[in-house]
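Entry:
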Amino acid sequence: MGGTNPFLPQSKTKLPTQPYTVTFVPPEGPGRSIEVDPSQLPYSRDGLKGSLLEIALGHGIEIDHACGGVCACSTCHVVVKSGLESCPEPTDAELDQLDNAPGLTPRSRLACQCVPDGTTPVLVLIPGWNRNYAKEAPH
């Protein structure tokens, strides 16, 4: 899918220029830190290039994403506990989708649209309640 929706304005993102760390903490286990190398982006095919979803999937960390990472659902809802200042403000389309997410917080983002700029480490909580129970196996 590539993270773009032809029916929505493109998000203004700034890709990182230096390596940085993203730590993903799933509900059922310990966190896992990923050293993001900007020269290796994209790591996967879902979500915006450099997005939290794209980084997670490219490193074998599963985040549900029913729409394929094109900002058309809220199943990739995550909570950015620290490092949110390195991410651009959410677009209106992202905020519209987040309205459908359970457990919304002021630090909630869609993993498919949130692209850190690499200026600070990022800590991401993957909520346990966002599960798409009708989905394909990871591939």
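The chain has a mean pLDDT of 88.
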